[in-house]
Amino acid sequence: MPVPTKPIPKRPVRFDAAERAALDAALQKNTLWYLGSGKPDDAPVARTMQRYADRFGAYRAVSTSSGTASLHVAIAASQMPTGSEVIVTPITDIGTINAILYQNLIPVFADVDPDTAMPQAKHIEAAITEHTRGVVVVHLTGRPAEISDIAALCEAKGLVLIEDCAQALGATHKGKPLGQFGRFGCYSLNDQKHITCGEGGFVLTHNDDDYFLCHNYADKFFDRHGRGVRLHALAPNYRMSDLDGAMAEVQLAKLDQMVLPRRRLGDRLNDELAKIRGIIPQGRPLDGESSYFFFLFRIDSPGVIKCSRQVFRDQMLDLAGISSSGAYVPEPIYRSDYFLNKTFFPGRWPAEVVAGRTYDYRKVSLPGAETAVETGIRFILHEGFKDSDIDDYVAAVRMVAERNY
C-alpha cells in the first residue's frame, strides 16, 4: 500500500494590518494613478521604488506591472538593434524569452552546468557570435549565478548584461544584492515570490540615462520627466498602480523574515543531500547567499542511481509520502514547439528578415541543459517549513537512493 502523501506546509500569513492600512490610505486619496497628483519623482509609487533601490543597492528603481514587464523594459532600454542576438539560458520561465522576442531580438541559447542548471561564463562565451549584443542571466531558484565572471566577460566583449532576478529576492553575491552586476537588474513581485504586491516588478538602474529610459519604456514613452523625448520610441504600458505600490512598500519590510528561514533550511537541505551518494543538490554558492524560491537537485542517473528521474519521484511518493516535481521546465525551451516551429510569430519572423539570417532551433543540442532537465527534481521550500520537514525530505531521498544503487 502506498504511504499517504505528507501535506506540504502552508505559507504563514503574509498580510496583516500593515498592508490593510497601506491599501486603505491609498484608497482614501480617491486616485490610484501611479503619479498621484505630484511630479514623477515625488509620487507615491516613486517613493516606494526609491526604497527598493536603496534596499537593493541601486541608484534608482523603475516600477512595472510584472517581472516579464521588467525584463521587457530593460531590454528595450538597452536599445540593441533589431535582429541582434541575445544569449539566454534554455532553463527559465518563458517570460525571460518573451522579453527578448518582443523587441525582435534573437534568443541564442547557452548550455548550462547540469548541477546548477545555470550557464557559467564559459557556456556564454561559447555562444557568442559577431551578432551578439546582449546576455540575460537568470538567477534560477534564488541561487546566484556566477555573475562576477559573467559580468567580466560581458565587459570585455562589449555586451549588455541584464540580470533576471525574478526568483532571487534577498539573494546576494559577494555581499551585494543581485541586480548590481549588470546594466539592469529585473525583479518580480507576483504572488508566488518571497514578497508580493499581487502582480508587479521593478528594474534596478544605476545612472540617470538608464533610469529615464526605463521609466519611458514602462509608460508609453510619455516623457513624464519633461526631457523632450515624448513618443520617441514604441513603448508599452507597464505602469504600477498606487495600490500595488502601497503593498510593495509594506512588503519590503518583511523581506528578511521571508528569506532568512528559507536560507537556513535550504542550506541545511543542501548540506544533507550532498552526503547521499548519487544525489547532486544545486549547492550553496561559493561567493553568495541563496534565497531559495524553491529547492532543486538532480540524481546521477543512469550512473550511480539505476532508475529514471520519474521512477525516483514515484518511489519517494509511494514509499515516503513525499511529493515532488520534475526540473523547473519540462524540456529545454529550444525543444518546445514555440521554438521548433517559431509559433511566437505568425508567418515570417521579422527579426530574421531584418537580420538576413534564419535560425533553425531543431539543430540546437545542449547536453548540460538536457541532463539538468532529465535528471532534475524540485521540492517546494518556503519560510513555513520546519526542520522536521527537511528531515522528511532527506529521509525520503536517502531511502530511494539506497534502493536504486
From TrEMBL:
UniProt-listed InterPro entries: DegT/StrS_aminotransferase, PyrdxlP-dep_Trfase, PyrdxlP-dep_Trfase_major, PyrdxlP-dep_Trfase_small
Modified residues (N6-(pyridoxal phosphate)lysine): 193
Alphabetized CDD domains for the sequence: AHBA_syn
Keyword Transferase: yes
Active site: 193 (proton acceptor)
The keyword Transferase belongs to this UniProt entry's keyword annotation: yes
Sorted UniProt keywords: Aminotransferase, Pyridoxal phosphate, Transferase
Highest taxon of the lineage: Bacteria
Molecular function as annotated in GO: pyridoxal phosphate binding; transaminase activity
Any one of the GO BP annotations: polysaccharide biosynthetic process
Similarity comment text for this entry: Belongs to the DegT/DnrJ/EryC1 family.
Name of the protein in its database record: DegT/DnrJ/EryC1/StrS family aminotransferase
Originating organism: Mesorhizobium intechi
